[in-house]
Amino acid sequence: MQNLGYYNGKYDLIENMMIPMNDRVCWFGDGVYDVSCARNRIPHLFDAHIERFFNSAKLLRIEMPMTREELKKLTFEMMDKVDSGNVMIYWQVTRGTAARSHEFPKDVKANFWMTIRPKEVAVPEKPITLISVEDTRYLHCNIKTLNLIPNCMAEQAAKDAGCNTAVFHRGDIVTECAHSNVHIIKDGKIITHNADNLILPGIARANLLRLADVAGIEAVQRPFTMDELMNADEVFTTSTTALCSRVSTVDGKPVGMKDEKTFKKLQDVCFGDFFAATEKK
Ligand code: PDD
Predict the structure, then answer these.
(1) pTM over cut 0.90
(2) What pLDDT is stored for residue 232 in this prediction?
(3) Does the beta carbon of 181 lie inside 6 Å of ligand 1?
(4) 239, 245, 273: residue to mutate for ligand 1 pocket, most atoms within 8 A of CB
(5) Is the pLDDT of residue 234 over 90?
(6) What's the total number of domains in the chain?
(7) How far is CA 8 from CA 69, 79, 114, 121, in A?
(8) Are 175 and 198 in contact (CB under 8 A)?
(9) How far apart are CA 278 and CA 79, in angstroms?
(10) Which of the residues are catalytic?
């Protein structure tokens, strides 16, 4: 199969799949998701993604319809049906199927979705460009919920401005990007917003911090300002799908690009780790 969509035991090409209108995702976006990438049918940082997925569900009081081991087994089974071994794996769990009513329905089982689509992870050829957008999201950004309208609006505003993506700020404080975490390098050190309720605890971010530590590059986890971002030696983003991308402009003004040595070292370890961990056995 070219791709795969799975819903509560049924699977087909994504474009052939149908879901019930009363799935609470349709009324409330009432669910959580997670995204991981695999190469050679080997998912990268799989356990970390599983843990975050279960934790997001727990924070919304959604009871997972399967165990971690069952999720793992099912994902490998479904990956085997897809032609490419280099894929993006998307999991989603929604609270269940019930008539529209704000309170949580009683005695319904959560619905489990999965899609698997071809995806090549590759070192970007050129730096990316950002616009800045006031972060008007709510205060549960640590939960990977399906409520992504502000992120979609910010991404579209970036595209309308001819840029790649948007960086959010709450007042003066930089939080994260529309679908990645953002970091700066100053005087050879990484500065990244601490993992509180204002940002998603990115799996690529956590791996960056682990790899930076091994490479002897210091990292400080604290809020930083737009001014610090605009005057940083380097600005870069991390995410599961793009791993590590250098930023060259924000709102049309040049930023970073002044400490290639430190940035390259970090980008090399991020991609090196992905390729080594997903090498064919
Ligand atoms: N996005 N912050 C936000 C708001 C995100 O949506 C993402 C990921 C990240 C980075 O998280 P991670 O390193 O775990 O991918 C940070 C995914 C890829 C998406 O929605 O498609």
Answers:
(1) yes
(2) 98
(3) yes
(4) 239
(5) yes
(6) 2
(7) 17, 16, 9, 29
(8) yes
(9) 14
(10) 144
For residue 136, pLDDT over 90 is answered with yes
Give the end of a domain, one of 118, 145, 165. Answer: 118
Which of 69, 84, 118 marks a domain boundary? Answer: 118
Ligand 1, atom 17: closest residue by C-alpha? 179
Per-residue pLDDT of 89-106, as tens digits, reads 999 999 999 999 999 999
pLDDT at 281: 83
Q: Whose CA is nearest to atom 5 of ligand 1?
A: 179
The pLDDT value recorded for residue 18 is 97
Percent of the chain whose pLDDT exceeds 90: 100
169: left (phi over 0), alpha (psi -120 to 50) or beta: beta
List C-alpha distances in Å: 145 to 50, 189, 249, 267, 279: 15, 31, 29, 28, 31
Q: Does the pLDDT value for residue 30 go beyond 90? A: yes
Which residues form the domain of 52?
Answer: 4-118
Q: What is the pLDDT of residue 99?
A: 97
| Residue closest by Cα to atom 1 of ligand 1 | 179
pLDDT (average), residues 157-167: 98
Among candidate residues 233, 205, 209, 204, the one with its CA nearest the CA of residue 219? 209
Residue 101 CA, ligand 1 centroid: distance in Å = 29
- 257 with 132, same domain? yes
- Residues 132, 79, single domain; the answer is no
